[in-house]
Amino acid sequence: MKKLSDDDIKQLAGFFDLLMKCDVRNRKEGKYVNNNMPPHLKPTTTEALTLPSGKVIEVPKCVVSFDVWKGKPLQDTYGNKQVLDYKGAPLFAELLVRAMFKENNWDGVWVDSYRKCFRTKMPEKVKEVIELPEQPKQIYDKIVETTGFRGCWDVFLWNDSDVLFVECKRNKKDKMQESQLVWLETCLKFGLLPHNFLFVEWDVK
Q: Is 8 within 8 Å of 139 (Cβ atoms)?
């Protein structure tokens, strides 16, 4: 795990400062990040997460149910991940969440920690080589320099003035990993706020 230099921290802090200025402008214009979320993914509560430092952070949380895919079985299910149905297409929860945000003028990727790559489509459909846009890449790369690849939340999203990390956890089956809490704490140290994160607790209908 690489330690950031003073120049690295200043560079990243300057970019996050820009994000915070955008956030202030968005609040004044009624464009707060949570108001730009898909209706079914807007937070209705919070999830209390204990950081490695011992500090407790309340992260916006939504609870949602998805339809199960009942079409042709997929050959590659990543170790029997649940396949869901979104508008007639088979998707994993991470890609379904990304698709819903995409319809609300966000862009983003599923951060596939299993095979260490970014995805926008199901893995068996296409082999993707995705390059992040400059500003999201700057955020992602600097955090990875501190924490390593492990720990990034499932979905990394951005629009013209906001970034959002989304963690998808199936109800009563998944739990937060220590590396994900390290990622969260690192982001907060760099200047991101709890509303730049979303905890999606999901289950099937």
A: no
